[in-house]
Amino acid sequence: MDVKKRLKQVRDKIKSTALKCGRKPEDIKLVAVSKNQSVEKIKFLIEQGIITFGENRVQELRDKKEIISNLNINWHFIGHLQRNKVKYLMRMENCRMIQSLDSWRLAKEINKRAKKNERVITTLVEVNISGDESKFGIKPGETLNFLNRVEKLSNIRVAGLMAIAPYLEDHEEVRPYFKQMARLRKKANNNDHNLKELSMGMSNDYQVAIEEGATIVRIGTAIFGARNYK
Ligand SMILES: *Cc1c(COP(=O)(O)O)cnc(C)c1O
What we know:
alpha/beta
């Protein structure tokens, strides 16, 4: 199957899943995860109307600079971000969101570099929902405290929460993780935060994520096909 067919399938499924659970399809934003995918495929997707791409390595963003500088599209950073790489990201005008804010030290560095570039960067706080110590993210129980601290920083705007659910063959087993994320956002909003976004759901589980309230889905393989790891 080619990229065009796969994209149509994903768009159709996002729409039908949203309608099935009484949500507006336009309330769910699609981020096409283009890591380890070719510039040709990215260009093709731009022609198909995709405007937001997700990347998880700063080096790869720099390698794809030619296409990154296309101001008709924008990029979300979705991977673990090393502090010494933040300065490059903040110079990329159309890097519009860092979805993977996962520590206080990173928050301080992002704030400092955003200030230097006279911009306010939108972020999502990544929550370690699987509880796996080897994974990145703020612990669910520490998320509210973390939000309180980060929201005091002048050049960071927190728009919501992001999570990577554990990979489980049975989609129903993933559902409780998404439910927990939705509860966490609700709790934050009941405590004077204003978190609009819930970024969760990937190729394997985005339909369940939409049913549980995802506003952003990050989809790679289901659109592009398998990644090419050189
Ligand atoms: C790679 C990646 C995705 C997309 O994964 P697919 O299974 O290919 O859809 C989504 N989110 C993050 C954080 C990723 O690193």
